[in-house]
Amino acid sequence: MKFAFPVLLGLTVSTSALAAGQLPQTVAPVLYDITVRPDAKAMTFSGQETVDVDVRQATATIVLNAAELTVTAATFDGKPVPFALDKAAQTLTLTLPQLASVGRHKVGLAWTGTINRSANGLFAIDYTNADGTPDRMLATQFEAPDARRFAPMWDEPAFKARFRLTATAPKGQRAISNMPATSITSQADGSQLYRFDETPVMSSYLLYFGSGNLDRKTVEASGVQIGVVSRKGVVDQGDYSLGAATKLLSYYNDYFGTPYPLPKMDMIAGPGSSQFFGAMENWGAIFYFENELLFDPQVMSESNRQRIHTVVAHEMAHQWFGDLVTPRWWDDLWLNEGFASWMEGKASNDLNPSWKAAAASIAGERESAMGIDATAATHPIIRKVDTVDQIGEAFDSITYLKGQAVIGMLESTLGADTFRKGIRAYMAKYKYQNTVTEQLWEELSRASGTNVATIAHDFTLQGGVPLITLQGSRCEGGKTVAMLSQGRFGLDEASKAPQTWHVPIRVATIGAGGSETSAIVTGATPAPVSVGGCGTLVLNRGKGSYTRVMYDDAGHAAIVRDYARLSLEDRLGTLGDDYALAAGGYQDLSRWFDLMAQVSPEADPLEWQTVAGELSRLDGLYKGTPLEKPLRAKVAAILSPVLARIGFEAKPDDSALVSNLRETLIGRLGASGDAMVAARAQGYVAALAKNPDAIPAPIRQPILATYATRATPAEWEKLLDLAKAERNPVVKNRYVSLLGFAEDEVAARRALNLLKGDTFTPPQRAALLRSVAGAHPDMAFDWAAANKPLVDSFLEESNRSTFIVGLGAGSNDPAMPGKIERWAAANLPEGSRGGAKRSISQIAVRKAVGDRLKPAVEAWLAR
Question: How far is CA 277 from CA 53, 66, 151, 387, 747, in A?
Fold first, then answer.
């Protein structure tokens, strides 16, 4: 899917013991034969199933999962049996007249259910066709615990089984599932009965069903039919994804050493949105929200195109990591998401080298992961998961992005070929099975001849960010001897407690006789590392390891002096390290200012992307304070010349990176109130009245964001009119979110009032509320807290424990942490308050960092 306690070194988190709430292991499904009959108009469905089960231990009860279903009948081996639903536990228990013998049996069930308006279980996506007629598409979303809303199931990843699905669709509509349809039969009522082929053995959360007025376009690649499925009239916008998927399928078949095993792989575009996910890796029927799959050149930019490629790469990687080989329980979710995130970057970098995806990840995903990992809200990558809410909380930046970074570090340490050998062995050995992380370490250790767990346990079984510090260096006999120690980097006191890692890093010298060596640094006592050459010393060369590095004064002065001679990865990583080290109080912010001053106007666009992002974070620390206005002026003075150099509007020969930088600069300057950008935005939006394509696609998003942010109440009303009139569902969703951007409080309150009506769909209302929180976190949180039942009605079940508490995370009000804590205590079980703790931590860290950096910022502004 696409996008918290320390453990002692050497201990593993057991995923073999049952977590609280897990099903008993006495009975397991072997084959589901499911028939569903949706009624999209009534928003209901009925279903029946026969499940071949394996009774592993004689039992008088059978327990499986069911949620929000009305079960009407249950049988065991063809005979009716009593049953009971436990709403809180989301379980269905069948009571047998006598002990069931060990061996194969059949369970029969019938039920009715509700089609949801938000993306969980079987849900509807309402949209408007180009001719103005309303339409409705049905789709399913089952990860993590929502297959049980579609049919009673053993809805845990370890209970793998085969599935036969039969479903009805209205006349003229198309139905899609994981496997091709083996027959389509017209029924007496005019509907069509689709029978789909039997799936391979897989986990319940990977099952998919969808239907609607859909087009499908296919290509053949490597013996597999790859398809794009969309609403009518836009399927050609999937051509870019089809081309990308064709190359990716060949790439992954080779990388994993195990060919994709299904006969087809559909990519389904849903014209809706979710507050929880953008795409889902259902095996053979990958679901995407439309903006993540279809490329519309009239309204989408180069950054959107790259995003589509990486999302497709992510979901396709899941067809192996997650679908073919599946974690036994959600403790090891990172085996899905960390690897898919890493593979999306690796594949994108290899197939599109001009994007410099590996370097971009250093300034993007690496920094995002460390931003949470260096606070009290951190948690191990492998975390204990007991409840449904905790499953939802596990889908976070540590699971995805720290997981990605740690995998990249292991590949860098072992070598690409050796690492791939271990991955291939893992895939071959465990295909169609469930695993825990230790089994991956075993295969990588066999491939490399080293004990991978020595390093891997440190980074997966405890939270936090290591810090390598240069304690001094000297030149001896043409070599540099560096004294290095390992500590812990943190942004708050809780994250600075002493901790030990075995950190693999590359140490290099640049200049005459420069060389490179590898070392593992551990412990607080400085130890020598020797490397050839006596030039400028570079720690964590290439930034392949998940660690911060800090130089002594002489070492940092040399880095500043030779900045232009560093690799792009080292330039980006050092900018990130210097800013973060100042934020954590390890060094003065002047070091970052000195380094930033070395970024020339002609520097690589990724360097300016990094600088713009860090300046934006700095600016955000002082919003609403006397420093806000002079800081924004300083930021504009730095960034405006860069925008002037590359130009406001796209040029035919622009590289992808230049196009992305233009978007960033316009957005950043627009948010800061730059007069030129604001005027251009006003003019472009005014022109939309006569020409819906008036804003050039490459700059459409930052132009609209600038207009929305600065909008007066009257201008906000114009934006509302645009949102109401828009028929393109992707553009409409964007307009709805823009309605929450306004810094004007009157406009923001009008946006909140929209949430009480039916102007927009439930997912759109959730997006609008989150958008309001960006500019007005206190207003949004207070409104949501006072209207919890209404807010819950348009949230997905898996997001309810984190959504409202997350709205207040951007607040600078000293009272907000207490408000969040009290609301969580009154509304959430103790085990579901991870999101509240994270929001409170973010507020505390932001205040501490702002106070810490204020003197240096004031001195910088006074220059």
Answer: 32, 23, 22, 19, 28
Residue 391 has pLDDT above 90, yes or no: no
- pLDDT tens digits for range 457-516: 999 999 999 999 999 999 998 999 999 999 999 999 888 999 999 999 999 999 877 899
Report whether 302 contacts 368 (CB < 8 A): no
3-state SS assignment for residue 56: coil
Q: What is the pTM of this model?
A: 0.94
Rounded percentage of the chain residues whose pLDDT exceeds 90: 89
Chain-centroid distance of CA 703 in Å reads 25
Give the three-state DSSP class for 357.
Answer: helix
Reduced to 3 states (helix: H, G, I; strand: E, B; else coil), residue 792 is helix
Nearest to 180 by CA among 93, 263, 253: 263
- State the Cα–Cα distance between residues 828 and 846, nearest whole angstrom: 25
Residue 12, pLDDT score = 29
Whole-Å CA distances, 347 to 309, 310, 402, 657: 10, 8, 18, 18
Summary mean pLDDT of the chain: 94
pLDDT digits (tens, 9 = 90+) for 100-140: 999 999 999 999 999 999 999 999 999 999 888 999 999 99
| CA 159 to chain CA mean position, Å | 25
What DSSP letter does each residue of 62-89 carry, written as one string? EEEE--SEEEEEEEETTEE--EEEETTT
Tens-place pLDDT, residues 563-604: 999 999 999 999 999 999 999 999 999 999 999 999 999 999
Is 31 strand, coil or helix? strand
Residue 216, classed as helix, strand or coil, is: strand
Burial class (CB in 10 A: 0-12, 13-18, 19+), 485: middle
Annotate 520-539 with b (16+ C-beta within 10 A) or e (fewer): bbbeeebeebebbbbbbbbb
Burial class of residue 302 (count of CB atoms within 10 Å of its CB; 0-12, 13-18, 19+): buried
Angle between helix axes 777-786 and 816-827 (nearest 10 degrees) is: 20
Q: Contact, 733 vs 722, CB < 8 A?
A: no
- Summarised one tens digit per residue, pLDDT across range 272-323 is 988 888 999 999 999 999 999 999 999 999 999 999 999 999 999 999 999 9
pLDDT score for 14: 33
**Residue 351, helix vs strand vs coil:** helix
Q: Give residue 648's pLDDT.
A: 94
Q: How far is CA 584 from the centre of its chain?
A: 26
User: Considering only CA atoms, which of 279, 193, 184 is closest in space to residue 241?
Assistant: 279
Q: How many CB atoms lie within 10 A of CB 324?
A: 22
Q: Which residues are tagged catalytic?
A: 315
For tokens 């459409």, the residue is 700
Q: How far, CA to CA in Å, does 237 sit from each of 197, 243, 247, 267, 637?
A: 28, 11, 18, 12, 39
**Residue whose token pair is 């009624």:** 39
DSSP 477: T
Question: Cα angle at 172 between 171 and 178, to 5 degrees?
Answer: 95
- Residue 488's CB: how many other CB atoms inside 10 A? 18
Phi and psi for 373 in degrees, rounded to 5? -65, -20
Q: How far is CA 360 from CA 126, 339, 354, 411, 506, in A?
A: 36, 18, 11, 18, 19
**Can you give the pLDDT at residue 786?**
96
Average pLDDT score over residue span 28-40: 98
Neighbouring residues of 16: CB distance < 8 A, sequence distance ≥ 6? 328, 436
DSSP-derived pairing of the beta strands 325-327 and 59-65:
unpaired
pLDDT score at 397: 87
